[in-house]
Each structure stands twice: as structure tokens, then as C-alpha cells.
Write the C-alpha cells for this entry.
Amino acid sequence: MINFKIINKILGSLLFLEALLMIVCLGMAFVFGEDDILPFMVSIVVTVFFGFLFKYHGRNAENRLSRRDSFVVVTLSWLFFSLFGTMPFLFGGYIPSFTDAFFESVSGFTSTGSSIINDVEALPHGILFWRSLSQWLGGLGIVFFTIAILPSVVGGSTRVFAAEATGPMQNKLHPRLSMCAKWLWLVYVFITASCCACYMLFGMDWFHGINYAMTTAATGGFVIDNKCIFENSPALEYTATFFCFISGVNFTLLYFSVSKLKLRNLWKSSEFKFYTFFVLSCAAIVMAELMAWNGYDFEFAFRSSIFQVVSLITTTGYSNDDVVRWHHLTWLVLWVGMAVGACGGSTTGGMKCARVVMLLKIIKNEMRQRLHPNAVLPLKIDGQNVDNSHRVSLLAFTTSYLLLLLLSVAILMADNIDVENSISIAIASLANAGPSLMFSTTNHIAWSDLPDLSKWVASALMLIGRLEIFSILMILTPQFWREN
């Protein structure tokens, strides 16, 4: 049976954490003295009230989670954070519609970056900071952050980590998961601080630097300007490209390589090599197309292509050019990049390069098996054997990913969205890429133009994609709720 007492206890603690984040944004509202002070105060009171309510119902609970409890905790944590995250938007009247507010909140916490707000500069600074902070928290994971700062809150944390972590296989820095979480968050904070310093060095003020650093490190892509701030500054474009790329690397691998000054370890990782090759190959194709079809000079074509390719492969979603004017072949490259994503164990979305590497090796082994039927062909990734259970999981994930894409495209088309935009919306949402553009020359639409049904479909895909499909789909099956 599901242990709802411990689940309520954990949810109450997580709501206190969300209220604390709102207090930080309230401080930002006081600094700028705008009209978002009262909305944050009301949101904090409501969040704390429900936090106490959940804690009360979870009193005297044993600090122990079953595997089934862990999936429920993780799913409800993301759902509740998104629900309570709508309050600053709704109470302030900045997003009057609950559907739109929920879409914006989910997009933030899942670090997707899709936004229904067309004029972000009209928002007060506290609300802008809330959007960016929600992405930064969701980058590595809400529950994973809780494990780092309050390890005693989440019992059975290894199971929780397995339910929330990204990638086909998870490596740990330390035998104790709480220490592992602390080290990974240290890497995350270091990347964010370094990115902020570079942005400010190249011309951003402190508020822009902090906001863009958070959304860059989280590969979320929320912006606080109506016009792309990177367009007129090559230095900022290259800086954003570098830090998006770094944030797409497996953080465990990054820690071991950089902290021990053994950068060659990066090249020993088959996933990192594929990730680098994939980025450079896609950028080369797009660059050639821009020079041939759009008449860009070499440097501008290189800068535009590498920025856009890294932005979408890492599922950040920044845009430095009008991609609608690009050749259709570049759209295909960017679509594939969004679907594949970067490395597992990073802040990015998509299928993850590790899974693609495994698929390619399985295909290679299958062709060799056809030539040598009696041969025993092990599947190894970085010297580690991939057992049959991981291969079956890979097949199940890939199949589910493609079926979800097809189903969501069909629903969007039934909701009167054209084919090009339906594909773009489905991939961007499920891969948590969320670019601010739509690939359509005939019917160029914004996220705010979508019908409500399409927004709910996109919101569901964001949550499913962030938790890598099975954590949510499992709890929707009747078998999950059976006692045995």
C-alpha cells in the first residue's frame, strides 16, 4: 500500500522550501519597490499554510519510503511545485488565466523555457526573478536539491534519486547520496557563478547577469528581455554557447575531470565524445546552409550556427536569429538535436546521448551477429558491460518516447495546429527544449496563441519529459495501485 503519511510529510517540507524561494523573490521585489510585493506575500502565506497542513497529516510517519512511494513522491513534488508556483502570477494579475499560469510554472520548474508571456519587460523584477529561480531549482531536480540541504527529510533517498535522475545509468560521486547531492550542487553553483561573472564582464548588469546565468546553467532558456540580448554582442553569444555546452555535460564526469585536473577523462567517455561530435556535426551542416542559402559570412554563420545548435541540443532554447528564415534542412537538424539532447546526469532534456550511443552499439552488434550467428558480443559503454535489463529499458524508453511524440502530435493536430507547429511543439515540450520560435513560415504562432487543450498537452509533456516518462506513466497504470 502507498504510505501517504510519509508522502504528506515530505510534500509539506518541500512546500516550506518553495515558500523560502518565494521569500527570496519577495526580497527582490522590495529592492525594486514594484507592485509584486503583495502577490508574493500572499503566495508565501498560502504555501506555508498548506505546508503545515501536509506536515500535520504526515506527523509520526516513519522516515522510510518504498520504491512505489518514491515514484509518487517525485511525481507529486513536481506537480505541487508547479501548482503553487502559479500563485505569484495569478495573485498579481500578471497571468490571469490558470491554464497559462500553470503552463508558465511547469515550463519554469522543468527548465523547458516555453513562455506564454509575449512582453516579459512589462513584468516586475521579482516575478522575472521567480521565473529564473524556478528554472535554476528544476535544473538538477527539486527532490535532489532537498536531499542536498535536508537529507533527513527524504527517507529512502536512493529510490527517490532513481525516480528523478536523468539518463539511462546513474553514477554516484559518494556512497552517501546526500554527499553526492552536495557535490553535484557545488558544481552547479560554480558553473552558475562563473557564467554570471562572465556575463557581467561582457556588459550585463547584475540583475541580468544573475537571471541569465541561472537559466543558462539550468539550460532552461527563460529570458527577461523582449529582444534577444545576445544578438548584438558576439562575446555574450560565445559565452552563452560555452556555458550551455558545459551544462550539457554529465556533472559527475565534469566533477571528476575538472576537480582532479584530469581533463583527458572527458575524452574517455563515449557519451561525451558523441555529444561533442554531434554538436560539431550539426553546427557544420547548419553553418554550410547559412552560407549557401542566406549569404552569411564565415564568422557570422559559425557564430549563429554553433549558438543555435548548442542552445537546442542542450534544450536551452535561446535564439539569436530568426530561424524561420533559415533553410528547411536546418529545421530538421535542430529538430533532431532537440529530440536527442545532451548528456545524462546534466540539466538538459531530450533522450540523452548515452541512449543514442547504446542504440548505435546495439545496431552494430546486431549487424555483426548476422555475420557471425554464434558469436558472443558484449555491449560495453566506457568499459562497463550493459546488461540485458538496461537494454530492455532502453528499448522501452525509446518506444515510449516515439509513441508519446506521435500521440501528442495527433492531439495537437486535432486541436487545429498545423503539422509543422505540432511537431515542433511536441518535440520541444517532451524534450524540455522550449524554444521561443516555431518552425513554420505559413502559420508562425507563439505559445500564447495555442488553444487551452494544446497548452495542457504541452504542460503534461514537459512533466513527463523531465521525469523521463516512466516515473509519471507508471502511477497512471492500475497495476501500480494494487496492493501486491
Summary: Residues 389-481 form one domain. The two ends are 8 Å apart (CA to CA). The chain has a mean pLDDT of 85. Strands lie at 380-381, 384-385.
